[in-house]
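Lay summary. Proteins are chains of building blocks that fold into shapes, and those shapes determine what they do. In this project we predict the shape from the chain. Here is one chain we studied, written as its sequence of building blocks.
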Amino acid sequence: MIVTLIQWQQKKLRRKEKHRRFNLSDESESSSGQFIINDINRADRNKKWCPEPNIDIFPSYSAIPKTTRDGPFSFIENLELINKYYDTDKKCAVLGFPYRGISFHMALQGPKHSQGLTEEEKATMKRIITMTPRPKHVTESVREFHVQRMKRKYVAIHWRYNDDDWANHCKGNHGNPRACQQILEVMHDAGRLGKAFVNFLGKVKSKLGIEVMYIAAPPDEMEMLERVKIEILKDMPTVEIFLSQQLLPFLDERFQSQGCTNYQENRFEILSLAEMELCAKSEIFLRSSGSSWSMNINLERVIAEKDAYDLQNLDLLKDY
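And here is the predicted shape, written in a compact code that computers can read:
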């Protein structure tokens, strides 16, 4: 029924171009879903370029309407329109990178999200999300990490804020001004953040008896969050705080012990998926403002009816 551009493969190749120079040709073969690049000279080899796959793609880039500058239409909610443009009788059709193609957040209940959608369309979107979980090797790894290391119920927070990406986004006037101001004031202040986290964890412990938190954050924020962790433990020594510094070595050992030869090149993608799984399965999830990563988890939790106590992480900072 539906296929689309295999953007994830192209994105992966573009990342590799930053680290080495490719000599690419139009003659590319695919094996097990991966491109094999023939090594010949190209006059424009210094430009970002991806080989054309030898599979049929629907629709062609020129055939679809543009709703963003220099980009294909995105965030459409009309399933008839989707079927019109992504129409094929070929078998094994795949919808790649659906986040940019379908407004899955429109399936959420409430007047701001569901206007213009039929109940059938909302139900279809929910079924798609329910039937497309993270890979089994990721869910099993997270289950083992929880059983072996965390051992108890936990809350999770997505702390998306870092200097390299998020702060630059704010400084370029692309972010939510209120959110930017709140975060920029405290993102390097371990003392203030520690107090905000302690206040939240105190309420969670009192209400739900939970003393475990996982913080999902960019790798370059680990040093700062370790200082925040120290501040939390000063006031709440029985609390356990987990970061990717505990999760990533666990994943390394698990996948390498199983002989996964391509693990290293996908290491941080697997970490991100594992952190998404941890956040999705938490008792409470505190999402980051303006983050598509957080938005997808929030959507998943709403559909699973696990969002009763969920908040934006900005709510922690109201008094700090």
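What the prediction tells us: Confidence is low (pLDDT under 50) at residues 1-42, 44-49.
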